[in-house]
Design a protein that fits this description.
mainly alpha; Trimeric intracellular cation channel family protein; cell membrane; Gly_transporter
């Protein structure tokens, strides 16, 4: 029962994570004034880059975006109507959209990647690193394609650190009696809130 429930929770986490990072990519594409093709490429790399690298490292086949073709179709439609999608998410089309969507995607993909690695039977620390890779690599690709120094490298505010700590928290929660959905929500919120708090109060890591 718990396995079935966990799989259902992870499926919805994956959908929300893809949507969040896709919006993040579309927001960056709009800021760069890219056309629909450019918007699709940026959104694709943002939404699927981290998960693809995770699947390569864990030797998972087929890749999750090949197994779920509907993700690609939805992303294609979103790219065609990028302006409308962003307005639907927020009336204020600014860097704030990118930051919030990126934080949500960071949390969701971090938890998802960690759980998939645990399911594959890899050690706890490696599972946490898979969560961080899933969460952070797509954003890194987005910034590289858009000719920017990746946020992961230039931003002294904790980014991968938030994902790392949140993924460790999630592993700990899986060893409690909490429902899988509750563990997912707690760990995801910890990452998202942690990221936004560090930005709001300008908390930085030492150089």
């Amino acid at each position: 029962m718990h396995v079935t429930r966990l799989q259902l929770v992870m499926h919805w986490v994956e959908i929300l994570a893809v949507f969040s990072f896709a919006v993040s990519g579309l927001a960056e594409a709009k800021r760069r004034r890219l056309d629909a093709v450019g918007a699709f490429i940026v959104a694709f790399l943002t939404a699927f880059g981290g998960g693809t690298l995770r699947d390569l490292l864990l030797d998972r086949r087929p890749f999750y975006w090949i197994e779920h073709e509907q993700y690609l179709l939805a992303l294609f439609v979103m790219s065609l109507f990028a302006n409308w999608v962003i307005r639907l998410v927020s009336q204020l089309v600014s860097d704030r959209v990118l930051i919030v969507a990126d934080a949500i995607g960071l949390g969701l993909f971090g938890v998802l990647g960690t759980q998939l690695a645990l399911d594959a039977g890899v050690p706890i620390f490696v599972s946490v690193m898979m969560g961080v890779i899933t969460a952070a690599f797509g954003g890194l690709l987005r910034d590289v394609v858009c000719n920017e120094v990746p946020m992961l490298l230039r931003d002294n505010h904790p980014y991968a650190t938030c994902a790392f700590l949140g993924c460790f928290l999630y592993v700990g929660l899986t060893h409690t009696d909490l429902l899988p959905s509750v563990s997912v929500v707690i760990a995801t919120l910890a990452i998202v809130i942690g990221r936004l708090v560090t930005l709001r109060w300008n908390i930085t890591l030492p150089r």
